[in-house]
Amino acid sequence: MEYHRISFIHNDTEYSFIKAMNDRLTGYSLMSACRIEVQIYMKEHNLKGKYILTGMAKI
Q1: Containing domain of residue 31, as a range?
Q2: Disulfide engineering: 55 pairs with which of 5, 7, 22, 31, CB 3.0-4.6 Å?
Q3: CA nearest to 32, candidates 56, 15, 16
């Protein structure tokens, strides 16, 4: 497992969180996993609507 900081913008507010992710994910599969994690985060925090993924970095 690797830890990644994922950042996104929703309604002009930037959000960021850290998530442990499978270290075998690369390229498109890693990007898809990050988008799924953002959707889960939004659902857990009652954020509705569109978002813009602004960053992802291994920490």
Answers
A1: 2-58
A2: 7
A3: 56
Task: Output the DSSP codes for the chain.
Answer: -EEEEEEEEETTEEEEEEEEE-TT--HHHHHHHHHHHHHHHHHHTT--S--EEEEEEE-
Nearest CA to 39 among 24, 25, 53, 58?
53
CB 54 within 8 A of CB 14: yes
Number of domain units in the chain: 1
Reading the block at residue 50, the tokens are 């569109």
Name residues whose C-beta falls within 8 Å of residue 16's C-beta, 6 or more positions apart in sequence.
Answer: 5, 6, 7, 8, 55
